[in-house]
Automatic annotation (TrEMBL):
Signal sequence residues: 1-23
Entries under Pfam families matching the protein: Lipase_GDSL
InterPro entries registered for this protein in UniProt: GDSL, SGNH_hydro_sf
The name this protein goes by in its record: GDSL esterase/lipase
Family designation: Belongs to the 'GDSL' lipolytic enzyme family.
Alphabetic keyword roster: Glycoprotein, Signal
Entry-linked SUPFAM superfamilies: SGNH hydrolase
Keyword Signal: yes
Length: 347
């Protein structure tokens, strides 16, 4: 079983946002804090769109978790939100990559512009008048991301890290900002922009881009240059969030941090119940130094899962485990989500 941010949204965040919590944050107990949640992004948030697109069977059947329903499942009721995210999705259209002589194709046509088009197709069924849409969408919560990681993997297939940082990162950030602005123009007023994880710490990246030079790795064993790429992405995304808040003062737009929470897992894993000796090793995989093998991916023949996933940070070398996402969700609930809900100061 693979855990993703779909679990974060469905298992922890969504019930808290729609129905309140019994924890330290005093959310309303009766009336939902948000009438609906709409999510855009990649596999860190996909709750079934990819499965429906490539194998049209009912997604997440029998799981029993309150996922934000995948948009491509037309049998769903989307009155409380929809998930447009797709595994492997990129922020940028394929045209950008072809212009850069990058032939590494996405698994399906599901870029951020495509996901926005899906939202525009759904919108008339959600609300009718300008006033109704302004009230409904203005009070709903929108996640735009996490997205961009797949774009950078495509860029790195043909360019250096520095070229990717110079050419691809600004283009990705512009696409995310444009998507957020488009949603604002459609009536959205509460938007969360999740940043990138420390990609240089992912078992998959460590496997694909090994270096014989010890200085290329930091004290946690992560690749310095690729983490610098992720930090640059996050800094530009923070700037975009600030710029959008200035341009649209009525909108509440917050950056949500994946990077620092994951570093905290590596710095003091015992505090979160993780095994210090396996912080960079995937729980589910096909062997190797980081237990990530492209020839035996998690869920395929040759791969096995560790005995206790709760002791691991990484589930399959790309995605985090449920306990990791749960800890990140806690930080988001008292950070960016609380900010957009109550209009608190942003960082």
């Amino acid at each position: 079983m693979r855990f993703s941010a779909g679990v974060l949204l469905g298992f922890l965040v969504l019930p808290c946002l729609l129905y309140g919590t019994d924890g330290n944050v005093l959310w309303p107990k009766k009336k939902p804090l948000f009438p609906a949640i709409f999510s855009f992004g990649n596999s860190y948030a996909d709750t079934g769109n990819y499965i429906i697109e490539v194998d049209p069977r009912p997604a997440a059947d029998g799981v029993g978790l309150p996922f934000v329903p995948p948009y491509l499942d037309k049998t769903q009721n989307f009155s409380e939100g929809a998930n447009f995210a797709v595994i492997g999705a990129r922020a940028l259209d394929q045209t950008f990559f072809l212009q850069q002589n990058i032939t590494f194709a996405a698994p399906m046509n599901s870029s951020l512009s495509v996901q926005l088009r899906w939202f525009e197709e759904l919108r008339p069924s959600l609300c009718n008048t300008t006033r109704d849409c302004g009230d409904y969408l203005g009070k709903s919560l929108f996640f735009v991301g996490e997205i961009g990681g797949n774009d950078y993997l495509a860029c790195l297939s043909a360019k250096t890290v520095e070229q990717t940082k110079r050419i691809c990162v600004p283009a990705v950030i512009n696409a995310i900002a444009a998507a957020a602005e488009s949603l604002i123009q459609h009536g959205a007023r509460r938007i969360v922009l999740p940043g990138n994880v420390p990609m240089g710490c992912l078992p998959a990246i460590l496997t694909f881009y090994p270096s014989p030079n010890v200085p290329d790795y930091d004290s946690y064993g992560c690749l310095r240059k690729i983490n610098a790429l992720a930090r640059y992405h996050n800094e530009l995304l923070r700037r975009s969030a600030r710029a959008l808040r200035i341009k649209y003062p009525d909108a509440k737009i917050a950056f949500a941090d994946y990077y620092q929470p994951v570093l905290a897992f590596l710095r003091t894993p015992e505090l979160f119940g993780f095994d210090r000796n396996r912080t960079l090793v995937a729980c589910c995989g096909g062997g190797g130094q980081y237990n990530f093998n492209p020839a035996a991916l998690c869920g395929f023949p040759g791969a096995t899962a560790c005995a206790d996933p709760a002791r691991s940070v990484s589930w399959d070398g790309i995605h985090l485990t449920q306990p990791a996402f749960k800890n990140i969700a806690k930080s988001w609930l008292v950070g960016p989500i609380l900010s957009v809900a109550l209009g608190l100061p942003f960082v």
